[in-house]
Design goal:
CATH superfamily of the largest domain in chain A: TolB, C-terminal domain
Shape of chain B: globular
CATH topology of the largest domain in chain A: Neuraminidase
CATH class of the largest domain in chain A: Mainly Beta
CATH topology of chain B: 60s Ribosomal Protein L30, Chain: A
CATH architecture of chain B: 2-Layer Sandwich
CATH superfamily of chain B: OmpA-like domain
Largest sheet of chain A: 7 strands, mixed
Order of helices and strands of chain B: HEEEEEHEHEHE
CATH class of chain B: Alpha Beta
Structural class of chain B: alpha+beta
Largest sheet of chain B: 4 strands, mixed
Structural class of chain A: mainly beta
Strand content of chain A: 35-45%
Oligomer: heterodimer
Distance between the termini of chain B: 75 Å
Number of strands of chain A: 31
Number of domains of chain B: 1
Distance between the termini of chain A: 22 Å
Number of helices of chain B: 4
Shape of chain A: globular
Strand content of chain B: 15-25%
Radius of gyration of chain A: 23 Å
Helix content of chain A: 10-25%
């Protein structure tokens, strides 16, 4: 397992963020039908460094490859329109020192990203600049040094910086997705835990597929995962340390535990425990091992998710007769139903900003991913499909990832399960690339913040 | 002439309806309400002792047919006192994964409770829920879903 904590030295050498003279501004609060045209100039690499990277990383041109990562991220966001590099007139090395703004304005670029890649003490050093083409000035400059295997992450970090500078909000590109990789027949699916970069690269499998695994979720520092495993045919919540690979069962429950998530401080796991036909919500403190019963009701109580301040819990219950969404204080008091629309509601997840709850809704044979305010008002359905569920928020609360299944015949023909993402605005719906079929995605927080 | 035509049309309708009903019979299995009542997927613990019971959508209530099946299982278990069983509860694919895990658990327990009222010790029965993870029929249609909403009694030893 590759190390999870990467050392990235961010040295800030010029940072003109002040006074916002810049004319560029990207509004991310509504569907963006006119993505901002910008140019990502291939990062320039000196011949000596280029040869070395060719040997170690098997990359023809590392500068161009990092630029492609940035370009792809920006395009996927739906807010930016990276222009075709074939139209670029200026050479990368010269553009990085002194862009000829007329050339870039000519191809309608409003912003320009340039950079330089070098080997310094066997390490990868990347410098980049963001330019406002219309104002004709530099608006940001940063440099990173890291081990060269992290070159894709450098592209993600650059994207995060650019995104933040141009939208005013934090990015979500230097992140990972943990999910369940699926193979085989629908009646006997083989499922493994898998982890990948947000853009679908660097996939690693964390379990072998010998037992059924479901619903993995990161802890706040992204080093631990809690999930459901059918190890020895006993469905229980487990904890996995991604770096060491050590797994342990959570608590000592005489029955199925499921639907786990971490508390926002990472100290507790909240989950359902099913006994004698009744599922209630429990927490377990990971240090003291103390177990606390949070709900006590003869109905099914499941899918708990904390508010980011840890004061509230939203969850799924059928105490009214059918699946609905409820909110309570984190000690289990003041339970209040918040979903009142037509249909069934499930999988509530509190947004990282705290103001919204994402959910799955089933109505008249269709499945929807939607959001509502935490008091249940302002319900908005983002996408409708034959089957989809389990939204998970990007760390900046702007994008939701979920999974979608297709119809099949009795032999299972036509069946597929894929990850999809959609903007909070309801725009920019995209399939997220995975090596195999996939379900139950969970988005990490930013790896470097 | 026109009488002849009417006769011919009636005949056509007649044959068409025969054809249609033949088709309807051809679809495998049956449902009452949306509870599966066919035998397609059913296996037998012993002669005349079906291994599974079926449920309506989102329901955990045992139907009359289910109770009859479970009474047969109970009498078989009484005769074979060394056999322990696992009740495997399942849901169809038209629900969220976590809720369906709870629903499967509740269905298997409904069956367990009924077996216990017929004198089978709770010690001989364990329960596991697979939620929607292990369908018997992969189809995305009401009939397939009705076969998948089930509690299956499996010999544990």
């Amino acid at each position: 397992m590759r190390k999870f904590i990467f050392l990235i030295y961010v040295s800030l050498f010029i940072f003109n963020c002040g006074k916002a003279w810049s004319l560029i501004e990207v509004d991310i609060t509504r569907g963006n039908l006119n993505p901002l045209p910008l140019a990502v100039s291939p990062l320039s690499v000196d011949q000596n460094s280029k040869e070395k990277f060719k040997d170690t990383l098997k990359l023809e041109d590392i500068g161009a490859e990092i630029s492609k990562v940035v370009e792809n991220n920006l395009r996927q966001s739906g807010l930016f329109n990276p222009l075709d590099p074939k139209a670029f007139l200026q050479k990368p090395d010269i553009a990085h020192v002194k862009p000829r703004f007329e050339d870039w304005a000519l191809i309608k670029a409003q912003a320009l990203i340039t950079g330089e890649v070098k080997i310094v003490d066997e390490k990868l050093r990347v410098e980049f600049r963001l330019w406002d083409v219309l104002a004709g000035k530099e608006i940001m400059a940063l440099a990173f040094t890291t081990v060269s295997e992290n070159w894709r992450r450098v592209g993600h970090i650059i994207t995060d910086k650019v995104y933040q500078r141009l939208t005013g909000e934090k990015g979500y590109f230097d992140t990972r997705i943990i999910y369940v990789a699926e193979e085989g027949l629908k009646t006997s699916r083989i499922k493994k835990l898998a982890i990948m970069d947000q853009d679908g690269f660097n996939t690693k499998y964390l379990t072998l597929g010998n037992e059924l695994v479901l619903t993995p979720r990161f802890n706040p520092t992204n080093q631990m995962v809690t999930y459901l495993s059918y190890f020895k045919n006993l469905p229980r919540v487990y904890l996995l340390d991604i770096e060491t690979g050590i797994q342990e069962v959570v608590g000592d429950f005489p029955g199925m535990t499921f639907a786990p998530r971490f508390s926002p401080d990472g100290k507790k796991i909240i989950m359902s425990f099913a006994k004698d036909g009744n599922s209630d919500i429990y927490t377990m403190d990971l240090e003291s091992r103390e177990v606390e019963k949070i709900t006590n009701h003869p109905s099914i109580d499941t899918s708990p998710s904390y508010s980011p301040d840890g004061k509230y819990i939203c969850f799924n219950s059928d105490r009214s007769g059918y699946q609905q969404i409820y909110v309570m204080r984190s000690d289990g008091s003041k339970v209040k139903r918040i979903s009142f629309g037509n249909g069934l509601y499930g999988t509530p997840v509190w947004s990282p900003r705290g103001d919204l709850i994402a959910f799955t809704k089933l109505h008249k044979g269709k499945f929807y991913i939607g959001v509502m305010r935490t008091d249940g008002t302002g319900e908005r359905l983002l996408t409708e499909n034959y089957y989809q569920e389990a939204p998970s928020w990007s760390p900046n609360g702007r994008v939701l990832i979920f999974y979608r299944e297709t119809k099949s015949d009795s032999a299972g023909k036509g069946f597929s399960a894929k990850l999809w993402s959609i903007d909070l605005t309801g725009y920019n719906e995209r399939m997220v690339k995975t090596e195999t079929d996939a379900s139950d995605p969970s988005w990490s927080s930013l790896l470097t913040d | 002439m026109s009488l002849n035509k009417i006769f011919r049309n009636t005949l056509l309708v007649f044959f068409a309806s025969i054809l249609l009903s033949a088709c309807a019979v051809k679809t495998t299995g049956k449902m009452q309400g949306d509870v599966y009542t066919g035998k397609d997927t059913v296996e037998y613990l012993a002669s005349g002792v079906p291994d599974r019971v079926f449920f309506a959508t989102n329901e955990t209530v045992l139907t009359t047919a289910s109770r009859e099946t479970l009474r047969k299982q109970a009498s078989w278990l009484r005769k074979n006192s060394k056999i322990n069983v696992v009740l495997e509860g399942h849901a169809d694919e038209r629900g969220t994964r976590e809720y369906n895990l709870a629903l499967g658990e509740r269905r298997a327990n409904a069956a367990k409770d009924y077996l216990m009222t017929y004198g089978i010790s709770g010690n001989r029965i364990s329960v596991i829920s697979y939620g929607k993870e292990r369908p018997v029929d992969s189809g995305s249609n009401p009939l397939a879903w009705s076969k998948n909403r089930r509690s299956v009694t499996v010999k544990a030893n």
